[in-house]
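Before the break, one more example. Copy the sequence into your notebook; we will annotate it together after we see the structure.
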Amino acid sequence: MKRIVAFLLVMVTLGVADGHEKHHLSKDLSSLELSLEQQNDVKEIVKAYRHELKAFRDEKESVEKHKERLFREKQLDERALVALQTSLSQKASQIETRFLLQMHAILTPSQREKFARNLDEWEVE
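Here is what the structure looks like once it is written out:
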């Protein structure tokens, strides 16, 4: 029963209409067997993560348009291009790091072991 509740919690928490986030529906955390308190914590952590991820994707789209404009110029500004790429990469790293630190703080060692098997699903791209 706990697994079903955890699975439904994650499905509801992660279910969004944004096409970019549909692949997140496969992020099933039921195998972690979270306590009720952990479920509430995870719900808030994932909610914040999703919010940051949406803002990141919006910014990434803007950066891609800026890169296109740079590329169309007669001379490609290498410094500007590197600055855009670096900024985007740093933001992705910050979002992912913050999320993983928060998850690590609330999971037990055995839950961390299970969660670690699927870290790639939570990678910010």
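Residues 3-9, 11-26 have pLDDT under 50 and may be disordered. The two ends are 34 Å apart (CA to CA). Try to locate both features in your own notes.
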